[in-house]
Design brief:
CATH class of chain B: Alpha Beta
Largest interface: A-B, 22 and 27 residues
Shape of chain B: globular
Shape of chain A: globular
CATH architecture of chain B: 4-Layer Sandwich
Strand order of the largest sheet of chain B: 8-1-2-9-10
Strand content of chain B: 15-25%
Radius of gyration of chain B: 18 Å
Order of helices and strands of chain A: HEEEEEEHHHEEEEHHEEH
Number of helices of chain B: 7
CATH superfamily of chain A: Aminohydrolase, N-terminal nucleophile (Ntn) domain
CATH superfamily of chain B: Aminohydrolase, N-terminal nucleophile (Ntn) domain
CATH class of chain A: Alpha Beta
Largest sheet of chain A: 5 strands, antiparallel
Oligomer: heterodimer
CATH topology of chain B: Glutamine Phosphoribosylpyrophosphate, subunit 1, domain 1
C-alpha cells in the first residue's frame, strides 16, 4: 500500500486505476494475421434468466468442464455483484470471475469516490467495456465470456427489474422477457419462448414456485442433450443455483426450497 | 535561510500555528461505539463530512475541502486496490494510516516550501467484536492517535475530531463520563449529539473552558439543531453483509435523538 502522490483522483474509473497500478493485464492487441483461426465460442454451461411476478429469476447449473472432462460440480456461475445486480456467466471461469471481481469493485469504487450510486445504464456499460477490453484474448482463443446481467433500477421514471444479455464483443441487448446463454441455451430458449407464448401464463405472471419449476425443467432439458450442463444431479443432490433480483435486493433460494419444488414438479 | 536548523524549527512552528488557525472554525465530529457497531455523528450546514472508505472503514474529516478530497480519494484508492488484489479481509485501517497516510502527510507538512494538508482525519474500523474496533485520528502533521487497540492498555470506545485542542479535550472528558459502548443506537446518538454540543461550545477564544452544565448543553444542542442538519452514519457489526457502512438520513437521526 503505497500512497502515490500524483494520483489523479476522481477522473479514473476502477479498471483504469488497476491498469495504472499494473494490477490488470491489458488484452493483447487485435492483429490482422494470415493464419488467424476462426473464433469458436467455447462457453460450456447453461444460464437462464427471466422476469416473473417477483422480479428477475437467474438460474445456472453447477458444472464446470475442461474439454470433455467434468472438473467441478459445485461451481457458482450466478454471481452477486452488488445489492441489486447479478452477473451470470458462461465462458472461461478464470476470466469471468476476474471480470465479476473488477465489476464489483468498480461499482463500489464509484459510489465511494463520487458519493452517489452508479446508474443502471452506467453499470450495464461498465460490463460492456470489460468485455470489449477482453476481446483480444477471445480472438486468441482464450477467455471468452458471454454473460447475462440482471439488476433492479430504482430510478423514479420507471422503476423495475432490468435484464440484459451480451455477446463476446461487448454489445448489450436489453430483453423484455427472458435470456439464456451457454452451450445449453438453444434448448432453454426454445422452452422459454414456448412457455411465454403458449404456456399456462406468460413468464411475467408466474409466481415464485412456478418460476422455479420452469427454470428447473429448462435446465434439466438442457442437460439432457448438452454434456457440459450439469442440470440437477439427483444422486448427489446438487441443485442449480437460483437467485432472484427484486426491489428489496437479491435473494438466493435455499437448496431445500429448490429440492421441494423439484420433487413436486420435475422429478 | 531554511538551511539553518533553527530557522527550520521556526518555520515549522509558524506553519503549525497557521494550520491550527485555519482549522479552528470547523464543526466537531464524534465517533462512538454502540452495541451493534460504530456511530459517526456531526451537525453540518454545508458540505458532507462523513465518508465511506471501504467495507468496514469510515472517515470523518475537518479542514480544507480540497485537501480532504485528496486524502479521501487516496484512502479509497489504496483500500480498493488492496481489497481487489488480496481480499477485503486484508484491508486494514492500521496499515492504511501508518504506512500510507501518515508518512505522506508528515512529509508534506515538513517540506516548508510546499503546501501542507489542511485537514484532520478521524477513522474507525468495525471489528468482529467491540474489542477489535479501532478508532484512529491522523493529524495534518501525520501524527496518529488511536484508541489503543493492539499495543497500549488504554481502550476507549469512542473518538472525537475537534477544531481545537480545548474542544477535543472537553468532548473526550464528556464521553468518558457519559458514554458506554453497550447501549443501543438511539442512546448512542443522544450521547453523541450532546458530545458534539460540548465540543462546539468549547470552540473559540471565549469558548467553554470546563464541562458545561447539562442544561446549557441541551440548550446549545437544541439551538444548533434548529438551523443545521444532522449528518450521521454507522458501521454495522452485522456480519452477513460485506459492506457495513450505512448513512442515516436527517429524519432518521432526528427521530432517534428526540
Amino acid at each position: 500500500m503505497t500512497f502515490d502522490q500524483s494520483f489523479s483522483g476522481a477522473g479514473d474509473d476502477f479498471p483504469a486505476l488497476l491498469r495504472r497500478k499494473g494490477l490488470l493485464q491489458p488484452a493483447p492487441e487485435l492483429k490482422q494475421s494470415a493464419g488467424h483461426t476462426a473464433f469458436v465460442p467455447t462457453e460450456s454451461t447453461t444460464i437462464l434468466a427471466f422476469k416473473f411476478a417477483g422480479g428477475v429469476l437467474v438460474a445456472g447449473d453447477r458444472r464446470a468442464t475442461s474439454g470433455n472432462t467434468v472438473v467441478y460440480d459445485r461451481a457458482d456461475k450466478v454471481l452477486e455483484i452488488d445489492r441489486h445486480s447479478i452477473m451470470a456467466i458462461a465462458g472461461v471461469p478464470a476470466t469471468a470471475w476476474e471480470m465479476a471481481r473488477v465489476l464489483e469493485h468498480s461499482f463500489q469504487y464509484f459510489r465511494r469516490t463520487q458519493l452517489q450510486e452508479m446508474s443502471v445504464d452506467g453499470k450495464v456499460r461498465a460490463l460492456s467495456k470489460l468485455l470489449r477490453d477482453n476481446f483480444g484474448f477471445v480472438m486468441q482463443g482464450v477467455g471468452v465470456v458471454v454473460p447475462i446481467f440482471a439488476t433492479y433500477d430504482p430510478s423514479n421514471s420507471e422503476p423495475g427489474a432490468r435484464l440484459y444479455f451480451y455477446d463476446a464483443m461487448g454489445a448489450q441487448f436489453e430483453v423484455t422477457d427472458y435470456a439464456a446463454t451457454g452451450s445449453g441455451s438453444p434448448a432453454v430458449r426454445g422452452i422459454l419462448y414456448y412457455e411465454n407464448n403458449w404456456g399456462e401464463k406468460p413468464l411475467q405472471k408466474l409466481n415464485q414456485d412456478e418460476a422455479v419449476t420452469i427454470a428447473l425443467r429448462a435446465l434439466d432439458t438442457a442437460a439432457e442433450s448438452d454434456t457440459s450442463t450439469g442440470g440437477v444431479d439427483r444422486g448427489g443432490k446438487i441443485f442449480p443455483l437460483i437467485r432472484v433480483v427484486a426491489r428489496e435486493g437479491i435473494t438466493t433460494l435455499p437448496e431445500e426450497k429448490i429440492a421441494a419444488v423439484f420433487k413436486r414438479t420435475v422429478a | 535561510m531554511i538551511e539553518e536548523p533553527y530557522r527550520w524549527v521556526e518555520a515549522i512552528a509558524n506553519r503549525r500555528e497557521y494550520i491550527e488557525t485555519q482549522l479552528a472554525t470547523g464543526s466537531p465530529i464524534a465517533a462512538v461505539g454502540y452495541r451493534d457497531g460504530i456511530l459517526f455523528l456531526t451537525l453540518s450546514r454545508s458540505r458532507q463530512k462523513i465518508f465511506e472508505i471501504y467495507d468496514r472503514i469510515a472517515m470523518g474529516a475537518i479542514g480544507h475541502p480540497g485537501d480532504i478530497e485528496r486524502l479521501r480519494m487516496a484512502a479509497i484508492e489504496l483500500a480498493s486496490t488492496e481489497g481487489f488484489t488480496r481480499s477485503a479481509a486484508d484491508v486494514s485501517l492500521r496499515r492504511l494510516a501508518h504506512y500510507s497516510l501518515s508518512p505522506v502527510m508528515k512529509s508534506a507538512f515538513e517540506q516548508v516550501y510546499g503546501a501542507p494538508f489542511l485537514a484532520r482525519l478521524l477513522f474507525a474500523e468495525v471489528g468482529a467484536s467491540p474489542e477489535e474496533d479501532l478508532f484512529l485520528r491522523v493529524e495534518y502533521d501525520g501524527a496518529i492517535a488511536t484508541n489503543g487497540a493492539g499495543v497500549s492498555q488504554m481502550q476507549n470506545d469512542f473518538a472525537v475530531l475537534s477544531p481545537t485542542r480545548q474542544s477535543a479535550e472537553l468532548t473526550e472528558l464528556f464521553l468518558k463520563k457519559e458514554h458506554t459502548a453497550t447501549v443501543a443506537l438511539e442512546d448512542a446518538m443522544k450521547v453523541a449529539i450532546d458530545a458534539w454540543a460540548v465540543g462546539h461550545m468549547a470552540i473559540g477564544e471565549d469558548g467553554a473552558k470546563e464541562l458545561p452544565e447539562r442544561a446549557a448543553v441541551a440548550k446549545h444542542r437544541d439551538e444548533q439543531l434548529a438551523d443545521a442538519g444532522v449528518e450521521a452514519a454507522v458501521l454495522e457489526r452485522d456480519s452477513k453483509a460485506a459492506i457495513r457502512y450505512r448513512t442515516l438520513s436527517d429524519e432518521e437521526a432526528r427521530s432517534a435523538i428526540k
